[in-house]
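Before relying on records like the one below, remember that each one covers exactly one chain. Contacts with other chains, cofactors or solvent are not represented anywhere in the record.
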Amino acid sequence: MTAVVEENTVLEFKGRMLMMTVLHLKTLDADVLREQLDRSLAQSPDWLREVPIVLDLPGDDVSVVELALILEMLRDRDMNLVAVAASAAVAEPEIRALGLGVVTLASARPVRTEAAPASREAPAEKEARAKEARAETLVVDQPVRSGQQLYSRGDMIVLAPVGTGAELLAEGHIHVYGNLRGRAIAGVRGDTSARVFCQQLNAELISIAGHYQVAEDLPEEFRGQAVQIGLDGEVMQFSSLRRN
């Protein structure tokens, strides 16, 4: 199919990504949930309240009343809830009646989401604020395995391989001194100067400040190579780390 773009078009679809975190509930016990949630918020209060969250319910039957109480608990703590994962536990109309969207996880069916309103903050101001917000550098000396998600409020340095299905998120740069097979997401708060460095590029996804490329789009000449990746405007740039 050929896309036709009119000269006076007022909209444009772009390859941008809105980062979301899935909050998987293993129980509906309100006291247990409240205790563990408050502990997590005390450890990472900023990013947990800022990142859009998809709520994944347990497989057991969940009543609308139970879901409403859980949503009230999360909203009372200023969690940025945007959707509930589709399941047989609660019907989609009931979820939407509670003010949330419905998405399908681990499915080949694409999920349609509305674009977020554009920020009025100037790009230079946004980048400066993102740099000031960097608070730490996280150093990881163990392999990052499938299903693991690591987050750093500053730069992240990984001294071991990153497996398929693993996810690295950093507000600053990401350095991987090994094989990068998972997802590397740098500049998650909008820092367009953030970069990704790795010794072997075999990633599922590379993202910088919302701009991303999936595995199929990565340049063939850089696969398995030591590279650095940054942004030039809205274009992702790859360059070799090996000296001739």
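The chain is about 20% helix and 25% strand.
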